[in-house]
Specification:
This protein has about 80 residues and is mostly loops. It has no helices and no strands.
């Protein structure tokens, strides 16, 4: 599987500041590069959204409120 087109999220694993000391001489260590420990393929589920179909309701201003007509009920 070719994963070269997929986005990459990097998670850095660094030593605590107190651990960044040479075990031989006690001097502070410095960063001299990075190496990939492992690569994992992660699946992010599809996102869902609500799609509302909204119909405009029309009523006649001259008819009583109880009695109204709806036009455009073909969705």
């Amino acid at each position: 599987m070719d994963c070269s087109g997929l986005p990459v999220e990097q998670i850095a694993h660094e030593l605590l500041e107190a651990e960044q000391v040479c075990a031989e001489c006690g001097e502070p260590l410095h960063i001299c590069g990075h190496q990939v420990l492992r690569r994992e393929l992660a699946y992010v589920p599809v996102q869902y959204k609500v799609v509302e179909h909204v119909q405009t309701v029309y009523s006649c201003r001259y008819q009583p409120v109880r009695k109204f007509c709806v036009k455009g009920d073909k969705v």
